[in-house]
Amino acid sequence: VASFFISRTDSEVDRRLNALGTPEALALRGRTAVAQGQVAYDMFQGEFSGPRWAALVERGAQVQRPLWASTSTKNPAYPDTLYVDNLIGPDTVNTLPDATLEAFADHGTVARTVDADPVAAHDLLRAVDSVGVDLVDVSRVLEEEGVAAFVASFDDLLADLTAKVRSF
């Protein structure tokens, strides 16, 4: 799989949109993560289709599926199924926390949505860029934070294992 951490994108982009404070910027809050996922899926479809891909499948190639992670909303103003509802499609994987899974089972929308309007998704990302949010920098920041968090978790795991080994 290729993992995309969805809600973290909106958290960082929304912080930057709020700092800009213009009506145009504020109107874009809570929409970038879904658009980014939909654009990634659009690129995924382009990469894993056509005659070249068919020839690779004949030789045993398999699709590297997009995995939507961090699909619980961090902003309580957003619907609790926002990211799940808008990223449903073939060959995708979604990791859901229990609360989001329960919310989706209760009132989520089961429909193919991830590729409903790729043009609008691309347009939204251009709009975010046009108000002054650098999405390349957002990605860099999120990657650095994500790697640091995984390193810290790994270090904690090693410390726990070391303590257990020493206790024997």
TrEMBL record:
Q: Which GO terms describe its cellular component?
A: cytoplasm
Query: What keywords tag this UniProt record?
Result: Cytoplasm, Pentose shunt, Schiff base, Transferase
Q: Where in the cell is it found?
A: Cytoplasm
Pathway listed for it is:
Carbohydrate degradation; pentose phosphate pathway
Q: Which GO terms describe its biological process?
A: carbohydrate metabolic process; pentose-phosphate shunt
Q: Name one Pfam family in it.
A: TAL_FSA
Does the record carry Zinc as a key word?
A: no
Gene Ontology terms for molecular function: transaldolase activity
Would I find Phosphoprotein among this entry's keywords?
no
Which family, according to UniProt?
Belongs to the transaldolase family. Type 2 subfamily.
Function (record text): Transaldolase is important for the balance of metabolites in the pentose-phosphate pathway.
Q: Which HAMAP family does the UniProt record give?
A: Transaldolase_2
| Protein name according to UniProt | Transaldolase
